[in-house]
UniProtKB/TrEMBL annotation:
Gene3D superfamilies reported for this sequence: P-loop containing nucleotide triphosphate hydrolases
Name of the protein this chain belongs to: ABC transporter ATP-binding protein YxlF
Domain ABC transporter: 3-227
Native organism: Oceanobacillus picturae
CDD domains, A to Z: ABC_DR_subfamily_A
Keywords: ATP-binding, Nucleotide-binding, Transport
GO MF annotation list: ATP binding; ATP hydrolysis activity
Family: Belongs to the ABC transporter superfamily.
Entries under Pfam families matching the protein: ABC_tran (PF00005)
Length: 294
C-alpha cells in the first residue's frame, strides 16, 4: 500500500481540524487535494509527513509508519517557501539534499536543467522571486526521485510557462510510477493533471473520480445552426449556443433522444454529439457554493 491513513484526527487546541480522515492508495497515481482556505489540506499533509503530531489514527506511507525516518529517501514534500534559507544559494540547498540523502551530485545539473533554474542557481535565495523559489522547491523534491511526492500549493507564483513545465514534470513522474498528492486552488491545472480529486470539506475528505461524473450535458454539432435554433425554439426544447454550429443541451424533462429526434425530423444533420465531462471547477462549485471559507 502506498498510503494508508486510518481515522486521522487532528486538533488545534479545541478546534478539530481533521475529523477522521481515511485514505487508501494502492496503485501509483496523481491525486489532487482541493478545498476552501482553512479546510485542513496543509494540516493533513503536515500530519502525513510527521511535521505535526496527530491526535488519533494511524498513517502508513510505503508500508511503513509515517514516523520511520528511512522514508526520507522515498517520500518528498514540497512545502511553503518559508522552509528555504535566504542566505544560501539554490545550489547550496540542492547540494545539502544530495549529501544528506547520498545522492550523486551530478543529479544537481540534471534537475536544474529540468526545472529551468540554471541562470540563478548560484544566487542567494533571498534575491529569488516567488516563482524562482517555487522552481527551487520543485528541484529539491524531485532530485531524490521519490516514490511518493506530496505537494502543497506547488503552482504558487508560477508564470504560465513554468506552470506548464511543472505539469509536464509531474506527468512524467507519474508515468514512471511516482504517486503524487498535490493540493492546489488552480482547478484548471488540476483538470490537466488528474481526474481523481479528494475534496476537503469540514475536516473530512470526499473522494471523487471525475471520470465517473458525467453531467447529462452534451455538445451537439449541427450543419445548420439557424434552422436548428428555429425548430428547437418552436418545440420549446431548452438549449444554449456553445459556439457557431454547436448547441449545448442538458437532459432534464427532455431526453437526449427527443432532442435528436427533433433535429432529425427537421432534416438537420447532426455532425457529432459529445458528452461533457464535469471539470474540477464545476464540481467544486457544486460542493462549496455558498459556503464561506474560513
Ligand atoms: N498552527 C496552528 N495553530 C492553530 N490553528 C491552526 C494552525 N495551523 C492551522 N490552523 C487552523 O487549522 C485550520 C486548517 O488550516 P490549514 O492551513 O490546514 O488549511 P488549508 O486547507 O491548507 O488552507 P489554505 O487553502 O488557506 O492553505 C484553519 O482553521 C487554521 O486556522
Amino acid at each position: 500500500m502506498i498510503v494508508n491513513v486510518e481515522n486521522l484526527k487532528k486538533r488545534y487546541k479545541k478546534q478539530l481540524v481533521l475529523k477522521g480522515i481515511n485514505i487508501k492508495i494502492e496503485s501509483p497515481q496523481i491525486i489532487a487535494l482541493v478545498g476552501p482556505n482553512g479546510s485542513g489540506k496543509t494540516t493533513l499533509l503536515n500530519c502525513m509527513t510527521n511535521l505535526l503530531t496527530v491526535n488519533e489514527g494511524s498513517i502508513e506511507l510505503l508500508g511503513k509508519s509515517h514516523k520511520d525516518s528511512s522514508l526520507f529517501y522515498d517520500v518528498s514534500y514540497l512545502q511553503d517557501n518559508r522552509i528555504l534559507y535566504g542566505d544560501l544559494t539554490g545550489y547550496d540547498h540542492l547540494k545539502f539534499i544530495c549529501q544528506a540523502q547520498h545522492i550523486d551530485q551530478s543529479k544537481i545539473k540534471e534537475v536544474v536543467e529540468r526545472v529551468g533554474m540554471g541562470s540563478y542557481l548560484k544566487k542567494r535565495v533571498r534575491n529569488y522571486s516567488l516563482g524562482m523559489k517555487q522552481h527551487l522547491l520543485l528541484a529539491m523534491v524531485i532530485i531524490n526521485e521519490p516514490k511518493l511526492l506530496l505537494m502543497d500549493e506547488p503552482l504558487n507564483g508560477l508564470d504560465p510557462t513554468s506552470a506548464i513545465n511543472m505539469r509536464n514534470i509531474l506527468l512524467e513522474l507519474a508515468e514512471i510510477g511516482t504517486t503524487i498528492i498535490v493540493s492546489s486552488h488552480n482547478l484548471d491545472e488540476i483538470d490537466r493533471l488528474t481526474n481523481t480529486i479528494y475534496f476537503m470539506k469540514d475536516g473530512a475528505l470526499l473522494k471523487e473520480s471525475l471520470t465517473d461524473l458525467h453531467l447529462n450535458q452534451y455538445e451537439v454539432s449541427v450543419s445548420n445552426t439557424d434552422k436548428a435554433v428555429e425548430v428547437l425554439n418552436a418545440k420549446g426544447i431548452p438549449y444554449s449556443l456553445a459556439e457557431k454550429g454547436v448547441l449545448r443541451f442538458e437532459e432534464s424533462d427532455v431526453s437526449l433522444q427527443q432532442f435528436i429526434d427533433c433535429l432529425n425530423e427537421n432534416q438537420i444533420e447532426i455532425i457529432s454529439i459529445e458528452n461533457q465531462k464535469v471539470g474540477a471547477e464545476k464540481r467544486y462549485r457544486e460542493l462549496f457554493e455558498g459556503e464561506a471559507s474560513v
